[in-house]
User: What shape does this take?
Amino acid sequence: MMGVKELGELKRASILSIASLLMAILSSAVGACQQSPPNPQKLFEEAERALSIHDYTRAEQGFREVLKINPQSAAAYADLGVVYMRRSEYERAIEAFKNAKRLAPQVAGIDLNLGLAYYRQNDFAAAIPPFKHVLRSNPNEVQERYLLGMSYYFSDDVEHAVETLDPLYESQKTNLDFLYVMGVAYGRLKRTAESTRTFEQMVRTGGDSAQLHLLMGKAHLGLDELSLAQSDLEKAAALDPKLHFVHYNLGVVYQKQSKPDQAVAQYKEEMLLTPGDPGSRENLGLLYIEQGELDQALVILQQALDIDPKLYKSLDGIGKVYLRKSQPKQAIPYFQQALVLAPDSAKMHFQLGQAYLKTGQRDKAQKEIDVAARLQAEARKKFERQVSGESSAPPASLEKP
Assistant: This one.
């Protein structure tokens, strides 16, 4: 049995243990209170260091931590956009750059990156406004002018493309891609002397190389000079049969010349060389539709869409396949998706109308057919104006800085 002395010592030990525990808890609480909150500047610098050494996961985490503390940090959004762009996540990059631009609308570098993200996504029309803003801020910058001009060209605005790129001619006269674009643009504008001069410069610069013949072939193809295009492209293929896109362009030439078997062979060859590019698959699928090979067309066009879901011609092609297979219900969503991407296509509105009609949706069918008729009438009037020499007011020129 425990004596009084032992009991007292046990009580004192218990009291001391509790006191020590309370002191430890108090000390920990005080220490926690004294800890400084996360330093956003330090977090930002660490994220920038991660970005500089290509540690994009850590960089993304760091910039997001900064934004949790300071959601108004344009710099963090801008650098986050760079992270996404380097990972080819262009939609996320665009969102980040838009947030940065909202917070710092006058910073030209943000517009440059936003334009680049659109450009690399092949959304050239969307790239034009941010590039224009950059050029207004830095009118003498070569890169910005080059990118803006190319965006105009790939948006089929050759007039503004030439206006923008002309000042770069002397500095870019050994750049084959530049000369190709300018030669085609001059040709489309019927500026024959300048087009000829540019193509002659291409020959002087490129020599008898496969790359030169590819670009010359593409230029002739762009001007619908099919015999000249065929000649140059066949020379390119003979010099370098593994040159990317030479077989694709030969396929386009043969298809335009009504040589379907040769076109099919060229598209298949290109698919082996550039498996990540959907162009040959799309053209081959559409060619299969012309030949009545509907099942093959369906497979190939779906492969093209797996690579790029925004190919409206492939979406339209699949819709057409289902319509021809008497499956209008399956055709409707493909025509609808295609029209989101190309809303001014009279043909696709008409096809959607036909699909609605065959599924008994008469009101929807009539609406689509009416839209198709209106678009066709507008296109006819535009063509008549062009033939007669009349034209609407020219597009506004580049704003002066």
Remarks:
- Residues 4-34 form the longest helix (31 residues).
- Residues 75 and 100 are 7 Å apart (CA to CA).
